[in-house]
Amino acid sequence: MGKILIKFILTAVLTYGLAQVLPNVHLDGVGSAAILVIVMGLLNATVKPIFKIIGFPITVLTLGIFLLVINVIIVKIADYLMRSFSVDGFLSALTFSLALSLVTAVVDMIMD
Known about the structure:
Elements: H1 2-21, E1 25-27, H2 30-54, H3 56-61, H4 66-81, E2 85-87, H5 90-111
Antiparallel strand pairs: 1-2
């Protein structure tokens, strides 16, 4: 249980750092980043699989590049659901999505 909590806190702090560094990404604070991590986790567990199934033909045709669009959609849904988080534009959402995936992968490597 302690490992999961440390991973969560580390991810939230790094997510807040990303929002500070990346242009057009706004996050009110570390608390908002923690809520964002929870919201993104829930969206990735529930909504993303549905989009993957619906978008499967397009994903095959684009050789997987459409999965990036699905990630952007998930970020924009989180933007819509949270007042304390906003991402302006498709490219900013794509950049944030890629950076967050990288940060999450690094945290997972460190913690495992």
